[in-house]
């Protein structure tokens, strides 16, 4: 029982120390009614210091636009290659079909010739 009380006391003490540390490390708030002072206080925040300049944003935008155009050209080139391969495949299948018909016709003529030649011999 005393072990349980000691452990809950340690937990309570740890929570109290954590809460006090959090409140001590919290950012100070500035309450003013003057708009000029408010702007100066907000300009020194970390977010405003890390905000990129207009030139940096413009340069990054131009780089992204040129990269987008380059990738679009690659997509168009690859689409053209796909279309060429599809048409070549269709042409190849057409040639295979024509070759099959020609061979079948020759085999049919040969078999017909064999049948008629043997009938004449009987």
Describe this structure in words.
It comes from Psychrobacter coccoides. Residues 61-88 form a coiled coil. With 122 residues, the protein is an all-alpha fold. The protein folds into two domains: 1-51; 66-122. Helix content is 87%, strand content 0%. It contains four helices and no strands. The protein has helices at residues 2-25, 35-43, 46-50, 54-121. The chain is rod-shaped and about 115 Å long. Mean pLDDT is 77; it is low at 1-5.
Order of helices and strands: HHHH
Structural class: mainly alpha
Provide the domain count. 2
Distance between the termini: 120 Å
β-strand percent reads under 5%
Low-confidence stretches: 1-5
Largest sheet: none
Helix coverage percent: over 70%
Radius of gyration from the alpha-carbon trace, in angstroms? 43 Å
Query: What gross morphology would you assign?
Result: rod-shaped
Task: Summarize model confidence as the mean pLDDT.
Answer: 77
Number of helices: 4
Question: How many beta-strand segments?
Answer: 0
């Amino acid at each position: 029982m005393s072990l349980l009380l000691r452990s809950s006391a340690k937990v309570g003490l740890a929570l109290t120390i954590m809460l006090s540390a959090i409140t001590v490390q919290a950012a100070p708030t500035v309450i003013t009614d003057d708009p000029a002072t408010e702007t100066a206080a907000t300009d020194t925040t970390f977010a405003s210091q890390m905000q990129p300049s207009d030139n940096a944003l413009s340069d990054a935008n131009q780089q992204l636009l040129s990269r987008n155009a380059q990738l679009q050209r690659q997509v168009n080139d690859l689409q053209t290659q796909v279309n060429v391969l599809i048409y070549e495949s269709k042409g190849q299948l057409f040639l295979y079909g024509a070759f099959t018909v020609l061979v079948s016709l020759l085999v049919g003529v040969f078999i017909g010739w064999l049948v008629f030649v043997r009938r004449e011999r009987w």
